[in-house]
Amino acid sequence: MASVELDVPRAASPLADTHAHLDMLEDPAGALARAALAGVSLVMTVVDPTEDADRTFRELDAWRSAAAEMVRGSLGRGSAEEPGPTLVGPPDVRMLVGAHPHNAKDVDDVARSRLSYFADHALVAGVGEIGLDFYRMHSPREKQIEAFESQLELAMRKQMPVVIHCRDAWEDMARILQSWAPCPPRHRGSG
């Protein structure tokens, strides 16, 4: 296994990456190793049941093992006086499972069943990234609303937190969330 060179300052305390997509990366193990060397102790990765969700569940242990080897190969190269946490292995990884609004058109009974199944996995910490995205409209508006509401229902049934994606859909989002109390935390991005 190759070591990882990283030339960024380390944080004074451990960090968390609360919104990753490890399955979309060419080198998830390298990303986890670089995160560890930068002081990241927790990574939340999004897993979409309409995509190759099985990959993350199937390969996560291998990614973490490879990352651990890379980190071990990189330790001892920096100054002993550098501030910040010294992590000896890759970050802890937890998953969020949910169909992104772009994929709402693919949320059918099979996807809902997979989502419910994945939500029971020990490493799954919440339902996300779910919501509405009327900017690009990769899925029709009504399919997005239907998928979002069904995933909110799943989160309530399983007593799980949600991570919400909303772009150019604030009025519909507010209307839907007003019917779901208490209002969950939201992730807001520009893209």
Draw up the topology in text.
Layout: E1 15-20, H1 28-37, E2 40-47, H2 53-74, E3 92-97, H3 109-119, E4 124-133, H4 141-158, E5 162-167, H5 170-178
Parallel strand pairs: 1-2, 2-3, 3-4, 4-5
Helix pairs in contact: 1-2
Please name the defining characteristics of this protein.
five-stranded parallel sheet, 19% strand, elongated, alpha/beta, 37% helix, 5 helices, 191 residues, TIM Barrel
Strand % is 15-25%
The spatial strand order of the largest sheet comes to 1-2-3-4-5
SSE succession: EHEHEHEHEH
Give the biggest sheet: 5 strands, parallel
Mean pLDDT value: 88
User: In the CATH hierarchy, what is the class?
Assistant: Alpha Beta
CATH superfamily: Metal-dependent hydrolases
Shape: elongated
Supply the number of structural domains. Answer: 1
Query: What Rg is obtained from the alpha carbons, in whole angstroms?
Result: 18 Å
The class by helix and strand makeup works out as alpha/beta
* Count of alpha and pi helical runs: 5
Portion in helices: 25-40%
Distance between the termini: 35 Å
Q: What this model shows, in words?
A:
This protein has 191 residues and is α/β, with parallel strands linked by helices. The chain has a single domain (15-81, 88-178), classed as Metal-dependent hydrolases (TIM Barrel, Alpha-Beta Barrel), CATH 3.20.20.140. 37% of the residues lie in helices and 19% in strands. It contains five helices and five strands, in the order E-H-E-H-E-H-E-H-E-H. The chain has helices spanning 28-37, 53-74, 109-119, 141-158, 170-178; strands at residues 15-20, 40-47, 92-97, 124-133, 162-167. It has a five-stranded parallel β-sheet. The radius of gyration is 18 Å and the shape is elongated. 37% of the residues are buried. The mean pLDDT is 88.
